[in-house]
Amino acid sequence: MRHLKRLVQAMHHHDISSDDSSSSHIRIRTPRRNAIRLLGGSALGLAGVCPVTADDGRANAAVGFQVVEVAKGLTLPWSLVFLPDGRMLVTERGGTMRFVSSRGELSAPIAGVPKVQAQGQGGLLDVALSADFARSRVLFLSYSEPTDSGARTAVARAELSDAGLTNVKVIFAQRQAASGNNHFGSRIVVAPGGVLFVTMGDRYSERDRAQDLGTHFGKIVRIRTDGSVPPGNPFAKAPDALPEIWTFGHRNVQGAALHPVTGRLWTHEHGPQGGDEINVEEAGTNYGWPVITYGREYVTGFRIGEGTRRADVREPVHQWTPSIGPSGMAFYTGDKFPAWQGSLFVGSLKFQMLSRIELDGEKFVRE
Fold it and tell me: What's the pTM?
């Protein structure tokens, strides 16, 4: 369990989790051809014969896994991708990024990383490779960008070589900054057609503005890989709305993945004391925060907002109360474990577990 906890922390450091150690390990190995990719390219190698039992007591026959330590010595690793040559590229929240070899050897910090505000939950966060990375060497980074009035979530485009990052350019940043160090969102999903989905947190202190289409707080945005607005964005021509917005009413989305069959964007987000959600993102849709939520206030325990349902708000596919501190999201598409085909995997920081969710289309079946 200790090993799994560290693996999940390597993907994301949750705001409720009390474990903020200065050094973390990556225990992620793919000794066989298939692996579960956990958001942004993170992978948990699966091998061995340990039986896995569902919470209803039924065993998943002949399915087991073994967690193997691959690398250690990283400081607060937040995201990971595999490069075509087999190396891993890992961001450390403090503002550094390193190559990690297949033998677990860490490189020196990579040069050229943008300046970040590494405080609280902020810092250097997600990394994603462009669809043509093998040719172009282009990647994308999300991070908390310092400003005169606080910090904001930003996305930079850069080219990677062994010498470091070059041609670094900020292609997107939240229109407004905010004080405080929480809820930066920051998950990047590279989608077909040359577009990116980027998740934005509500910055905690600006939660009411998650319903305001004139801000990027609590939104998911859809942009081209150069930062421009692609056709089809739902609010591109709406007065007083920011054209990058794809969906709104989010608290802090830090899990995102494209469904392998439908291609639709799935996400999860943190709720406060309940109401961690899994959602399917539909253009122009309101997901409720902070008006419609299962969550409660931290100090008083009072219910937040108007309730858990409203006609104009899309309900989550699944929600966790109490909160699990969701970390990472991936659909399983390998052939090593046929019974897991199409399952959605979500890590949990708070309960130190890895959740496999069975689905029927867009409906939750069991966990």
Answer: 0.86
